[in-house]
Design the sequence.
């Protein structure tokens, strides 16, 4: 499923759509960036509350395609600008990481 | 909006040093003008006027409950609620700074959140100060900024390192607490390898090692540099910092062991996985550390024996 379809299906707020029309091949849930580096799947989606430019840096390095920020945490301008520059789509949800993970797993049939 | 004209992106090196070295507690205003929850907005407006300020923390003792800004007063005047209690109209979803954070954080917060002021809390969540964009110390910094820029203009920047044939050598400085620029070296290294058409899985291993090395220096060291030696058959990454050194390297090599403090953890770092991650992705790994001197971490990732052709194929 592509990231944009997933976001629409799960009613996520679309904060940064550039790069959203890419296929998502898995997901990972973590707020620790080293843990993300170690375990997130390439071409995946990151479910996190960590909305800062370092998240984008890590996403780019391990080739994640999209981020969803949980708990509707604030998304700073520099964070979104970096994501746009790198073509990493950013979404946001009011739900927590657990519920978001369940919905994503279900939607991706993963 | 009053964004500070200093940015960690564009500042000179001396200023960067200052921004990372100075802590918020050294710069913030500590003589606080606060009001209790029961104060009326009219009382607060008077406080603002008398003191020439545009925001008043609502606090009792050292406990912070919220903040009332000039905007809240204007809204209350429009709505006829200016005689009501502050706690009915104050903002409670606050972005706060911690007194131990480097000043660079304070400055980046003004850009990120577009508030005119940030309450500063200590480690025990007690209100200890306020950082405003017109803080006296900020103007002091500005003066320094001008001075240092003049000085730096007289110094020629060093020429980029020239590589021997077949070998590319790049050196990237890393600064303590410079989270804004952390990751740039790994990004450059990744770009270089991608341009050469290597397998994405291999590139990922190099990227992970480089990023963890950069972050280790930003989080834990007094500063250092990441050197990347790219040969046709291998990438060697060397992170060398100048202190403080690791007392127990075996302990630090264990997953989950970290000395990072709470605000670093709040940024998603300090999981205690950096060094183990580097060792996991590297073909060769070693670490040497001396307390009071510094730490050197070295990782080698072997590249396929025959260098692949560059990504875009040539057609006759």
Sequence:
């Amino acid at each position: 499923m592509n990231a944009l379809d997933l976001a629409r299906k799960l009613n996520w707020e679309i904060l940064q759509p550039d790069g959203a029309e890419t296929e998502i091949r898995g997901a990972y849930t973590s707020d620790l960036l080293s843990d993300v580096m170690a375990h997130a799947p390439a071409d995946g989606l990151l479910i996190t509350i960590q909305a800062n430019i370092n998240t984008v840096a890590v996403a780019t390095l391990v080739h994640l395609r999209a981020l969803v920020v949980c708990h509707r945490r604030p998304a700073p301008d520099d964070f979104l600008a970096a994501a746009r520059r790198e073509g990493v789509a950013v979404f946001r949800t009011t739900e927590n990481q657990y519920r978001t993970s369940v919905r994503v797993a279900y939607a991706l049939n993963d | 909006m009053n964004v500070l004209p200093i940015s960690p992106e564009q500042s000179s090196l001396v200023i960067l040093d200052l921004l990372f070295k100075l802590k918020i507690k050294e710069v913030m205003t500590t003589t606080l003008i606060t009001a209790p929850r029961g104060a009326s907005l009219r009382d607060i407006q008077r406080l603002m006027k008398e003191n020439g300020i545009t925001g008043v923390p609502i606090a009792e003792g050292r406990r912070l409950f919220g903040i009332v800004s000039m905007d809240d007063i204007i809204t209350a005047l429009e709505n006829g609620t200016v005689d009501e209690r502050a706690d009915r109209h104050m903002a409670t979803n606050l972005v706060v700074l911690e007194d131990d954070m480097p000043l660079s954080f304070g400055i980046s917060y003004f850009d990120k959140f577009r508030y005119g002021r940030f309450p500063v809390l200590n480690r025990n969540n007690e209100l200890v100060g306020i950082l405003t964009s017109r803080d006296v110390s900020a103007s002091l910094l500005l003066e320094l900024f001008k001075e240092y820029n003049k000085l730096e203009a007289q110094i020629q920047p060093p020429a980029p390192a020239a590589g021997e044939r077949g070998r590319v050598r790049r050196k990237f400085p890393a600064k303590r607490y410079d989270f804004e620029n952390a990751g740039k070296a790994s990004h450059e290294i990744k770009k270089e390898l991608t341009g050469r058409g290597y397998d994405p899985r291999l590139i990922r291993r190099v990227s992970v090692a480089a990023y963890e090395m950069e972050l280790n220096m930003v989080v834990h060291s007094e500063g250092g540099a990441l050197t990347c030696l790219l040969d046709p058959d291998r990438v060697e990454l060397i992170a060398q910092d100048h202190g403080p050194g690791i007392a127990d390297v075996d302990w630090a090599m264990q997953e989950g062991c970290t000395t990072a403090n709470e605000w670093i953890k709040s940024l998603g770092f300090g999981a205690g996985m950096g060094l183990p991650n580097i060792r996991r992705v590297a073909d060769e790994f070693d670490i040497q550390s001396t307390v009071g001197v510094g730490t050197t971490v070295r990782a080698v990732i072997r590249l396929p024996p025959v260098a692949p052709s560059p990504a875009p194929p040539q057609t006759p």
Notes: Residues 72 and 94 of chain A are 5 Å apart (CA to CA). Helices of chain A lie at 3-9, 33-39, 53-61, 77-86, 97-108. The first strand of chain A starts at residue 13 and ends at 16. The mean pLDDT of chain A is 94.
